[in-house]
Amino acid sequence: REAVETVYSKENLNKLKAIYGDNYVEALKDMLYRMATGSNRPTGQNKIANQWLNWLNNSVGGIMFFNSRSALLQTLSAVNYTNFSDNNPLRIAQAFANQPQFWKDFSFLFNSDYMQSRRKGLKTDIDADEIANAAAMSKNKVRAALSYILKKGYFPTQYADNFAIAFGGASFYRNRINSYIRQGLSEKEAQEKAFLEFQETSEESQQSARPDKISMQQASSLGRLILAFANTPMQYARIIKKSSLDLVNGRGDWKENMGKIIWYSSMQNLIFTSLQQALFALAFDDDDDTSEKDKEKYIRTLNG
Known about the structure:
Layout lengths: L1 H6 L2 H11 L1 H16 L9 H18 L3 H8 L13 H9 L1 H12 L2 H9 L4 H12 L3 H13 L1 H28 L4 H19 L10 H4 L1 H6 L4 H18 L5 H30 L7 H13 L1
């Protein structure tokens, strides 16, 4: 806390305001407040607003209760670890071809403290995270019981989320280790660095309820209603915006920035939308589909 007060003193905040504007500083203060309190609710909430958000959380929890479509869709996010450097499609295929090592890496990631924390705390979604906290902390036993039941309803989605992260991350983790070993790092150093970057990539590209990974709009009362199911596209949009600004201002590696812009604006969207439509067609559609329905699916895919 002392470090935050020192770095973000009134004088420094005024400097930031002069450089970046009021909105930047307001969003920064909001994020620091959420990080300090451990709550993703905006500052200055009154009792009525908090009760409304409790109702909204439970409504979202009801929609997500053993939601098989949501669970299946989570598995598609395994492609989020693909890049244009050391984890390109060819390198992924090579890593997957080494089956003993691939499943060893999968098991290591799936059972890591990071992944267990993500499963138990429901850190994939803002509303789910608060339901989990309510179940653990609430003095109101009825509300705690309801939150506990709704929390259990996220079980298929959260395990599918963990499966996608470990499955997509296994090749990323192994290929990143190999890259660092080639650069001269020891195996232990390469493993530690690769795992840290695996975590950062997961938090950046997967759904996350981390206070510093959600926007001020998502944390707001109105945003919680409108953006309840928009965590992932919001994060992709922010990645594209940040990479674009870095590219224009000459920050970082231009190839990496360009790769992120291309991947998250088009390739990832195309792959995800196509797989989503194909998955729904296989798992949920009737056998007697008409050509008219097929046409609608193609249009939905192209719109996406």
